Structure formats: structure tokens, C-alpha cells
């Protein structure tokens, strides 16, 4: 029994360590005007969106540390009886980042307090990693192209090659993008959603789930000097956070539309019209309090549909070839039932025509399904195959945050994405390869991911 407990604790240790990337850290030193440390100063960090209040005190060196702050805007208050009160407002704390706020206090008159409305950027001295941050405003407001994939914004970061989509829609229904970071293989990057790894184990360069842009709170990207808890990465570690509810109800709706009517007619499309290719993405978000300052929820849903008139040239047998008549091809057809077993002495079919009696019944049935040429009687590229490609996908996220006390908080997040794709086969009932380059026929799929965190 004792051994089993030890094994379970060892198994949980990596999970506990990796959860540190879910929170932001606030550090600082409190001193007087001469630079001497002020011990036992009271420090409060208030999340202005959720009302969660964290408390700490400075040590004998005047230092304080909060290492489990949820993403948000904070008001920091430092107070001590002899030195009055100092407040720092609008302090942005993001996941997997360390923010420093040092306070130089002066001897105060009765009830004196100092409020700082903004703070200047300072040199990063508390963490050795090389990282970048994509805020919710950047993800939703910057042009990310059709599909609204936040990974398009990697092109704005140093060291990233231009992101590109990989694999077919059936193999990658989220339309995840690949990129090389600092020249390292794209299979060595690791993406996490609220602390949970969301990469395909068998295709590690593919992110299994891409949340809607409107659902993202922040994206933290580390490209060098990884902390130990990051792990499983050589190129980049990407930490994506879904939004959380606040003390106020907030909602949004969106619709993005891409229409082929704004494009030119493809050169090899012979019909006197534009082939249809229409993409729609619409959905909404909603979040708020269940119990003020304690319990919050956030939910979002997005529907993506694409309809495309797909076409391609294919080569199909003429009616004569279906009936075994090869006389016009210039190719000699030999009867396999004649001659020796090694192929010598075989005789040609009379007139290069294979008698119907030699056809296998299954082959006759299959040939009956193959469509006739529609581009003249030429041998090659004599059939223009057309069909309607259909792509349907839903993305939904649901997240609940609970702040039990100033020292205990937890969250649970569940994401759900069913997809249904149809890529028309080139030859209709006879099958053939897919017109849009994916998997022919129907390709249903379902992606689910969840994470639970607590501190």
C-alpha cells in the first residue's frame, strides 16, 4: 500500500509542476526613501474583474511574492502604519509571466496614501526565458485570415517561419498550422490549452484543438530559456488560455463571411461563371458571475461551414474501351489464355478486341458505374469531374472558475468540436480520388479536450 501511494505521488508531480504555467507571478521589494527594506508591510493584490483578493507580507528583506495569480487586471496595495499606503492600478498579469512592482515608501502623514495610475516598462530581470504575448485584443482585432486561427499571428514574432496549414481537412479538421521556430523542426513545439497538452501524439506538429479567436484570453509563447515545468519542447511552448467569467455579465456575437464572388475565375475552369467557394463562421460568447467574487462561468460556441464547387480533369475509358475494343489505341492486346506460362507464344485478340465473354462479372459491374467522357473522345483528360465539397465544424468551450478563499482556487474547462466533411469522389458511384484533395466521401470526426486546475 505504501509503495502504491509513493508511485501515485510521483505520477502526479509532473502535473503539479506543469500547472505553474497557468498563473502569473507578481514580485517586488518594499523600501523606504533611503533604500532600506521595510519588513512586515501588508501587500494586497486585487483582481478587479473577479474581486479575488490575495494577501502577503514582506519578509525581512522587504520582498513579497504572489505566484498563483489568475490572468487579469490587478490593483496592488502596499500599506504599513509608519509609511502610509501606496496603490498601483491597472497592473496586467498574464499566465506564465512575472511582473515586478517595487515600492519606495516615504514617512506618511495621517491617512496619507499614494496612487499610481500607470507604470513604465522595466527590464525583465526575474525570468530568463525569451517569450512573447498575444493579447485578446490582438487575437480578435488583427487580420488573421479566413478561418480565424490565432496561429496566423506567429508571423509577427521573431524566429517563426510563415505558418502554413498541413494535411487534408479530414486529417486536420481544426486547420491547425505548422511553423518552424528558430530553425528547429515543427514537431518539437508544444501547445497547451489551460495547461493541458493539445498536440496529436502521432502527429506532434498538429494542434488537435484550435479555440475560436473570440474565446481566447491570452497566448503566451516561449521560444528559448524554457522553465523546467514547460517540458516536451525544443522549438516553442505555446500556452493558450480560454477566457473566464467576471463579476459582470459580458457577451458577444460575430459573423465572418468569405465569398468567391470577390475572386477571379480560375484559368482552367471552362464554364462561363465563378465556381462557388463560400466560408461562414458565426457564433457568440457569454460569461459572468454565478456567485459574486466566488464562482464564475464562461461559454462560447462557433459554427464553421464551407461550400465549394470542386472540379478536376480525369481520364475515363470510352464506350469502346468499356466493351473491350482497343483497335483505335495502337496498343496490341494479347490473350492471357494462350501461349506458355512464361508469356511466350501468346496470341493477340482478333482485331485487338477483347470478347465480352472474357470479362469478369465484377469488372463489368464496375465499368458500368464509371461515367462516360464529357470532353470529347480523347484518351487523356477526357472527363471534367464536378461536385460540391461540404465542410461543417462546431467549436464549443465551457469554463467555470471558483475562488474559495484567498489561498484556494480552482477551475474546470471542457471543449467539444464535432466535424462532418464530404469530399466528392471524382467518379461518382465508381469512387475515385477526392475532388478537393482530401479523403473521398464522408469524414465525420469528434475532438474533445478538458483540463482541471487547482491551487
Written account of the structure:
- There is one protein chain.
- This protein has 455 residues and is mainly β.
- Helix content is 8%, strand content 39%.
- The protein is elongated and about 115 Å long.
Question: TL;DR?
Answer:
With 455 residues, this protein is mainly β. Helix content is 8%, strand content 39%.
Rounded mean pLDDT is 87
End-to-end separation: 27 Å
Radius of gyration: 32 Å
Oligomer: single chain
- Strand percent estimate: 35-45%
**Major β-sheet profile:** 6 strands, antiparallel
Task: Summarize this structure as a short list of keywords or feature phrases.
455 residues, mainly beta, 6-stranded antiparallel sheet, elongated
Write the layout of secondary structure elements.
Elements: H1 2-18, E1 24-31, E2 42-47, E3 53-57, E4 63-69, E5 72-80, E6 84-93, E7 98-100, E8 103-104, E9 113-116, E10 130-135, H2 136-141, E11 164-165, E12 177-178, E13 190-193, E14 196-197, E15 216-224, E16 237-242, E17 250-258, E18 277-291, E19 295-314, H3 319-322, H4 361-369, E20 383-403, E21 409-423, E22 441-454
Parallel strand pairs: 1-7, 1-8, 6-9, 13-16
Antiparallel strand pairs: 1-4, 2-3, 2-5, 5-6, 10-15, 11-12, 13-14, 15-16, 17-18, 18-19, 19-20, 20-21, 21-22
